[in-house]
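Hi support team,

I'm filing this because I wasn't sure whether my run with uridine-diphosphate-N-acetylglucosamine finished correctly. The job status page said complete, but I'd like someone to confirm that the output block is well-formed before I use it downstream. Pasting the exact inputs I used:
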Amino acid sequence: MQGKKILVTGGTGYIGSHTIIELITQGYSVVCVDNCINSDKSSLMSIHQITGVSVPFFQVDLCDSYETKKIFTAHPDISGVIHFAALKAVGESVEKPILYFRNNLDALINVLDLSIQNGVKAFIFSSSCTVYGEVLKSPVDENTPLQAAESPYGRTKQIGEQIIEDSVKNEMTQSILLRYFNPAGAHPSGLLGESPINQPQNLVPVITETAIGKRDTMTVFGNDYETKDGSCIRDYIHVCDLARAHILALSYIFNGRQKVPVEIFNVGIGNGLTVLEVIKAFEKESGLRLKYKVGPRRPGDVVAIYSDHAKASKELGWYPQYNVNDIMRTAWAWEQKRQQR
Ligand code: UD1
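And here is everything the job wrote out:
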């Protein structure tokens, strides 16, 4: 795949920036676009430090179709698009549903439309396990029927998948929908990790921010669920494992192995951990005692979900290389590095 050009939307964000590193390492050329409302351009500097490559960057709001079109005009040789750009805070989406529908869906429609018009061969969509809703049992495979989404954020992912299924029908463009479980951790170099502008709400950054003292304490949202210790179960996947899945998805299409217009793959490591187990893993890796209290359940949370990723292993050749201890070690190293800055 040497030299093929890939447009990464949301490329200064957490998963986008780690994926850019993997793309460059695999010999792709990359163009990055982001509106930088929840990330900043410093991740491009980290990408340069790690890979030695300066990635062309457009600061554009993808809801603006005129500005978005300029990217494709400047780079008519884009072969693949990885579409990460989206708002992703579940709680905020409950408070501001219109913002989420407008932002996540308008941006997707513009980028998808331009990708199809410009003969882009591979369109990879950043979907989420949240599309499964409250599942009856785990692990979930890709044939698990989707339940009603628990939040407007989740609904934007369900609708996004449907928009792609309805639109990607011609022979030129093929699409892969990657349903991520819970991405966490940081680049092993210690030079890149999650650094959102808005205060993070996801479990792992909340843990590391509490440990470093940015927060006095943290809350475990509920210990009265029907799980082994009463807290919710999720499938935490290292961001570098997740990044690699995107490169394998591109190769799958570019090598002509995809036989249908749209394929779906779960990307999770298949190991369900409770919130309290994740906290214990952090304490073990860091040698610290975390200050936390148990609070009420968080609206919109599902009780338990973890993946069956057999399809990704069989078809894409994707296998996770990191476990929860690696996630905690790299996330903690990154938090300490940020503190030094
Ligand atoms: C959800 C989606 C996921 C999506 C992500 C985007 C589901 C099942 N998953 O992840 O696909 O990518 O939003 O943000 O819908 N927790 C605490 N205290 C905290 C923070 C979290 O106890 O301060 C708990 C939560 O209740 C949950 C677990 O930690 O049980 C993970 O939460 P979080 O990291 O926010 O991710 P999800 O909500 O699972």
